[in-house]
Prokaryotic metallothionein (Streptomyces glaucus), 98 residues
Amino acid sequence: MPGDSPGARSPAPRRPPTLWRMATCEVCGNDYGMTFEVHAQGAVHVFDCFSCAIHRMAPICEHCRVQIIGQGVEVEGHWYCGAHCARAEGKVGIVDRV
């Protein structure tokens, strides 16, 4: 049929360009158009989800080893998930804020 040869066909329509750049999560390596950046201590980190951000950024309690996702307690440069763990490590005068 005339006009049915590959050369006679019009090219496939192009997809419209996306409004954001694709970036790669620094934890899982996922290429994702809706990544987000966390700017902390002069560095820029790129993640595709909050769980990857928590995995990389959350400090770890020096007593019970849990990742500190909430406020936590810093005492003399050491991080604890709460006053209980700080006291268990011999820190005094530490109270949780409620």
The helical segments are 50-57, 83-88. The longest helix spans residues 50-57.
